[in-house]
Amino acid sequence: MLLKITNLRVYFKSADGFVKAADGVDLELYPGEILGLVGETGSGKTVLGLAITRLLPKTAAVSGEVLYRGQNLLALPEEEMRKVRGRQVSMIFQNPLSSLNPALSIGEQIAEVLREHQGLKRKAAWQRAGELLELTGIPAKWIRSYPHELSGGMRQRAMIAIGLACAPSLLIADEPTRGLDVTIQVQIVELLHAVTKGVSPPRSMLLITHDLGVAAALTDRLAVMYAGKIVEYGRTGEVFRNPRHPYTRALLDSHPSNGLIATKGFSPSLINLPPGCSFHPRCKKARKKCAHEPPLVQRIGMDHGVRCFYA
Amino acid sequence: MYILEVTRGKKMLLTGSILIFGFMALAVFAPFIAPYDPDDVKVEKRLLPPGEHHLMGTDGFGRDIFSRVVFGTRYSLFLALVVVSINLLLGLMVGSIAGYFGGLIDELIMRIVDILLAFPNIILALCIVGVLGPSIQNLILALVALGWVGYTRVSRGLVLSIKEQGFIGAAKALGGSNMYIIMRHIIPNAFPPLLVLATLHVSHTILSIAALSFLGLGVQAPTPEWGAMLSEGKQFIFTHPHVMIFPGVAITLSVLSFNLLGEGLRDVLDPRAREVLNV
Amino acid sequence: MKRLLIQRLVSAVFVMLIASFLSFSLLFSAPGNPAETILRQQSGLDPTYDEIELFMKRHDLNRPFLVQCLQWLYLLTHGKLGVSLRTGEPVLEEFTARFGATFQLAVAAMALSVIIGLPIGVFAATKPNSLFDHIIRVVSLAGVSIPEFWLGLMLMLCFSLALGWLPCFGHGTVRHLVLPMITLAVGITASLMRFVRTSMLEVLNLDYIKTAKAKGLREVVIVWKHALKNALIPVVTILGTQLGHLLAGAVIVETVFSWPGIGKFFVDSIYARDYPVIQGFVLIIAAIYVLVNLLVDILYVYLDPRVRYEGRS
């Protein structure tokens, strides 16, 4: 197992109480596989990614275990963690216009990672940066361009190039297709496929997305997140064909191709979570127990789990 | 982060307010607080060091420095407040006009404002006072000549954002004239950031008044204005330094208190105000 | 982008014209007769009517307002700013002769401010709300609150008189430069520190800093390369304001320390009612100020790659 997350909790202190962005998350990711983390905005997906790479602000209280190759990342001294970031575990972000430094060329933003982690000299790093750009579909001659000179799709590719610079074993992609034209989205999905499954040995990826189409196209396994908890997980095909959690079902139903069926209610405030099962106020199948006891994860079949009493 | 800013802001606000209140009290109750008449010349008591009879000693003419410092609050503070009030109103008017009418008028006004924005007020003030002669009226004129500029940009920005919010449409629909709209709707909404600006401007103005008076071009001796006191005391700096120390401390403290108040207000008020102020 | 700069230039010229006209009109509202004052100063006795008439004729002070005004504008365009009533030398020459000293002082003060203010501002931003940060905030607030002339005198008192390390008047050696330089630098360092800190804090909160951290870069690199490069851009915009402070400060500091620069000459001319000098200097200073701001605008455009292409800030 490459990544094993156990009972991860991320609480933010606020004036009104604790924001429970992640409330006891368990996840497993195997070498060479792409695990999708889906859920609506505000479900805690991004926070999870940031927790793994320890990029959360100081106001976050993090507890639990994040084992990467057996080592608990949460317990590492900062200096050690810095060596992991970008080298073993790379995270790339959404909205590359604001996520890339506007004052540095994209070549420089790639080269500096190489210089830092692999000790390459200026010239060698620059050369490798050009190769990485080509790899992600950007002409190498644009190496001196600035982020604002590129289109959205190109920027995302540059972002990916930066993430792959030191050939990390785990790539965490946070909403890599958000805000892009549909045609560009397809290209990015293909690129992501090429740099994970298309290399040997295949690279692992944690794909954080709210786009079910992208999740369906890329992922091997899927974890569905709601209000800071994983409510269902399993092989992607299985979850799509046979969604057991009412929320997963609702998520799938709301997809345009399935009829855009809306679910009543709003996602809960992470400060004032409903008692018992967080989804029960909106759940068609909710019964008395659901409002009092928080359900635990039940295994239904090989590698398929659901957090529900009545799945 | 925001919460921390507000708490620190509240502390500054409190400290600044207390200090200012203290100064105001000194100014208003000066005759009761000052032990001696500030203009009472007693040549035999010249240049006494601080002691039991004279808290801060006496100056070159035997006048009690403490009393003079206390009375000095009247000049520095009230003058500064007058100047800033005039500037505020002027800037508000000009900025509102620019924002409300838009178009060429707006362009023209803002171009001029852009250029004038950081021009050293004091050089022009020196010029005006220097040419027209030192008097309180000329002093005020000199400080008002460029002082209004800082408020224009803020006023205009607020007018523009209010315009977009539709208060104007509603008022117009009810039949209000242009002037009425400017007066009743725009100005009250512009208040908080302008208040911060004005507070900081007061501290700046106190410094300018003191500097001009120090150069003999502002409030004239024998008036017990702090800058003028420093100007008179300059000659004794090496022999009787106490004459110079106390008025200077008074200036620094009063300026500091307004700075604290202004900064505190800025931290406590809506962070949007900070964007408008561009800091 | 070029359009913006040309607009700036045009408005600058426009403002300068207004300034010239205003400064000239000011002369005519002046009480008393400058001729009388100058002559009285020169000879120590009350000048006679004839002497005043002569003086006025020689300096063209008895023509009607509009004529003098046009004359003035005409001369301006030829670079002639009039002649000092005190020294008899052309105003422009008096300016250039003394400008060097002021420039020396200003550059030294600016350099000191940057050397001290910039690193401290950056460092304070990396440790927000720490003890260091709080101390810096208090110190910078105090620094902005102290009247410069008083600070100069206090420093003089301390270092010249009490400790005898540095001279307090005059000009010539580096030791003479120290006190005026420090006095002038205090205010500027304080505001620079605060501005750098604020700018850095804003930048450090931005997304691309998170990306830089995610890449595993060292904190030093993140702060000094990624953040500072972007944070300095708005700092450049306040260079114009700082120039204003420098000019204003120079006037006061030079007077206190008898530093032979344009500031001291300006103040002396005011005392003497040397109107050509007063007018001329204000205009020259306005021109310098406008020019520097224009340069700052250009610099800003050069520094921010985004503005270069989009033409807006």
From TrEMBL, chain A:
The record's annotation in Gene3D superfamilies points to: P-loop containing nucleotide triphosphate hydrolases (3.40.50.300)
**Which reactions does this protein catalyse?**
Ni(2+)(out) + ATP + H2O = Ni(2+)(in) + ADP + phosphate + H(+)
Instruction: Name where it mostly resides.
Output: membrane
Any one GO BP annotation for this protein: peptide transport
ABC transporter domain ranges (all copies)? 3-252
Q: Which domain of life is it from?
A: Bacteria
Q: How does it assemble?
A: The complex is composed of two ATP-binding proteins (NikD and NikE), two transmembrane proteins (NikB and NikC) and a solute-binding protein (NikA).
Q: What is this protein called?
A: Nickel import system ATP-binding protein NikD
**Source organism:** Desulfofundulus thermosubterraneus DSM 16057
Source organism phylogeny: Bacteria, Bacillati, Bacillota, Clostridia, Eubacteriales
